[in-house]
């Protein structure tokens, strides 16, 4: 499996760290217990296309949002997490 | 009084040669890490002093004195040159890194075994952050081979791993002739 | 059908033509008291104990593929009770006791072999941690012996004790730990459940779960609708998909775990050896193959195959621990889908829908749990209250943050276990 880092280009899976679903980008308001539970634990976990957070740990260190098909390991899109957050705001 | 003796990171370990690959230590005069703030006009004194702009991601440039190497998101290393007073996050890391040069005709074969990068397709002055074995590393392609930087604490591991692979490549080469 | 030495001899001499299927292939009925979704090890043992312990025999097990085609036929077969935390400790202890009586219980050779399991340690701190774990295991009534380096050397002389990064200081020996024959466990439970009247319906995919006014009423399947008073979801690996049919979201992320088998070799490895620091474990099957594996690939996946870097990592760890393994050729490798919960421990609980229960989140430790999981799930579904050895394994522990069972102490996050 290879990911194309928007900064460094096409790189081997070994250079990347996987954090989890891109849900981690949507932090709940502090103190909202139910929302925090959903944020930390509950996942759609689809058997198909997912969006998840990776870091180009051994490379440029950028956090990435990766859209991929988890049943085929096909990588559909890789973007910088900071751009995704900016777009969302 | 204890007499402290300054040693280079790879002192006593290098140079090393096996088959058509050679490994030697590089001792930069100075290594300065530079992380610019958002306002790029703040970098003017650097450009004046070194005569070049900051390199694009994955690149290094020769400066009037020394060179500037891209080393990650919004991060650069200035090698060998003095960095002028600058409004940026600047840290002296001269003693924090071990730096070696891997050369010879077999250098690419050695890298192919120990680094996940497609090293054969790198061109001179290109830079990548990647792995040597399991060690995070900065890898610079030169005209004659590769320069590799790892954290100083990994110096012995770096030499051990690269020289082991050099031996293996040499042995493979001897078999095929 | 029972088995006897006489029958084996007779069939062996007459071309094995007299064997008959050992469980029926029934058409699904219109209604059951209980429908279990998933005909893996856990689903089959649930059905068996519903019939055996609770006298509920109007039960169907619905299996999308065929019996034994999922993770129960695709694992590294280790059976142990060496857990540390209250909750896991008593559960796996119960499970190991069931394993030890399983062959006579089912009249089926599941090839359970208590050959002993050794967890290696490589530092003083790790020795302390294992000493403490060993004491916990003894307190639970299981067995644990702390071995020093010479003690490990006497048992496992073929390891490299001097490797630079992780020199072997000793090991925690769990003599009753061992292995069992993975698919035989599924077949044994299937036959026993069928004999007690449970319908095992293979090639029957559940497409939807019917819920009416907050209560489960049945399932829609590829072979038509089936009404049920209670439904159990026992589909680890696909828990999120099946739960979603009832509108439920579960605290699970699916990950891939790889395993490997070498060519058949003469008996050499007499124990299960676990090298935690290198993420490597090893045993030898009765056929002679070295069965070994490592850690997760560490990304969500349903692909049932992993990537090459983790293969390389496992091989490197194997070479570090046991250099002689380099002479063996790897015959095959595979990947399985793991239901990863945030704390690394499983869930056997009610859901927010009346009459709908779930047994899920087995992470990478489901095989050894097969007997106790079925025992506790059957208890929960029959009595509508948790069995005492699984009462901590609720959904609610994540919501409240109380009673998390983070055995590895790595934090409550899916990819850390």
Can you describe what's shown?
The complex is a heterotrimer of chains A (89), B (177) and C (417). Chain A is of the alpha+beta class. Helices cover 18% and strands 38% of the residues of chain A. In chain A, the strands form two sheets. A four-stranded antiparallel beta sheet of chain A has the order 3-4-5-6. A two-stranded antiparallel sheet of chain A has the order 1-2. Helices cover 21% and strands 34% of the residues of chain B. In chain B, helix 2 crosses helix 3 (155-176). The longest helix of chain B is centred in the last third of the chain and has 22 residues, at 155-176. The model of chain B has no long low-confidence stretch (mean pLDDT 95). In chain C, strand 13 and strand 14 (280-284) form a beta hairpin. The longest helix of chain C is centred in the N-terminal third of the chain and has 16 residues, at 124-139. Chain C is globular and about 65 Å long. Chains in contact: A-B, A-C. The interface between A and C is medium-sized, with 27 and 26 residues.
* Continuous helix count of chain C: 11
Shape of chain A: globular
**CATH topology description of chain A:** Folate-binding fold
**First-residue to last-residue Cα separation of chain A:** 32 Å
Our Rg estimate of chain C from Cα atoms comes to: 21 Å
Number of strands of chain A: 6
Quote the average pLDDT of chain C: 95
Q: Considering DSSP H and I runs of 4 or more, what fraction of the residues of chain C is helical?
A: 25-40%
> What pattern of helices and strands is seen along the backbone of chain C?
HEHEEHHEHEHEEHEEEEHEEEEHEEEHH
Total of domains of chain C:
2
Chain-wise SSE layout:
The complex is a heterotrimer of chains A (89), B (177) and C (417).
Chain A: E1 2-5, E2 9-12, E3 17-21, H1 33-40, E4 49-55, E5 63-69, E6 74-80, H2 81-88
Antiparallel strand pairs in A: 1-2, 3-4, 4-5, 5-6
Chain B: E1 16-18, E2 21-26, E3 31-36, H1 44-50, E4 60-62, E5 67-72, E6 75-79, E7 88-92, E8 97-103, H2 107-114, E9 127-132, E10 135-141, E11 145-151, H3 155-176
Chain C: H1 5-13, E1 31-37, H2 41-54, E2 59-62, E3 78-79, H3 88-100, H4 102-106, E4 117-121, H5 124-139, E5 145-148, H6 149-155, E6 170-174, E7 178-179, H7 182-195, E8 199-201, E9 206-212, E10 215-221, E11 224-233, H8 239-245, E12 253-264, E13 272-275, E14 280-284, E15 289-300, H9 308-321, E16 330-340, E17 347-350, E18 356-360, H10 370-383, H11 396-400
Parallel strand pairs in C: 1-2, 1-11, 2-8, 4-13, 11-18
Antiparallel strand pairs in C: 3-7, 4-6, 5-6, 9-10, 10-11, 12-15, 12-16, 13-14, 14-15, 17-18
Helix pairs in contact in C: 2-7, 2-10, 3-10
